[in-house]
Amino acid sequence: GPIDPAGFLPRYASRLDLAADVECRAREYATALGEHGKLCGKKPSGVAAACLYRAAREQGADLTQAAAADVADVSRMTIRSTVETIDSLQPATTPAEG
User: Fold this and answer.
1) Cβ distance 48 to 9 under 8 Å?
2) Superfamily of domain 5-87
3) DSSP string spanning the chain?
4) What is the distance between the alpha carbons of residues 42 and 15, in angstroms, rounded to a whole number?
5) pTM listed for this prediction
6) Which segments of 10-70 are extended strands (E)?
7) Domain boundaries in the chain?
8) pLDDT truncated to tens, each residue of the chain (98 aa)?
């Protein structure tokens, strides 16, 4: 069966020097993607990196798309498209403007 993206999170989080709460948030995103059937055809490693990037950005951690893509050996486009999918599932977590 498909590999769970959550399996990549601890290793990537430690390589990217991300806090435990960022990893925890990323795990919630990975779970939500799975529950909504959004993991089909996506590389689990890329999904994991995108979840970490999205969680890091939300929590003000310093992580670029390029660094997230590098750690998972995927393209920045992969990170970006997965982040857009996460955003579409998470209207409530988008920070308010202003």
Assistant:
1) yes
2) Cyclin-like (1.10.472.10)
3) -PPPGGGGHHHHHHHTT--HHHHHHHHHHHHHHHHTT--TTS-HHHHHHHHHHHHHHHTT----HHHHHHHHT--HHHHHHHHHHHHHH-GGGSPPP-
4) 22
5) 0.89
6) none
7) 5-87
8) 558 999 999 999 999 999 999 999 999 999 999 999 999 989 999 999 999 999 999 999 999 999 999 999 999 999 999 999 999 997 655 555 54
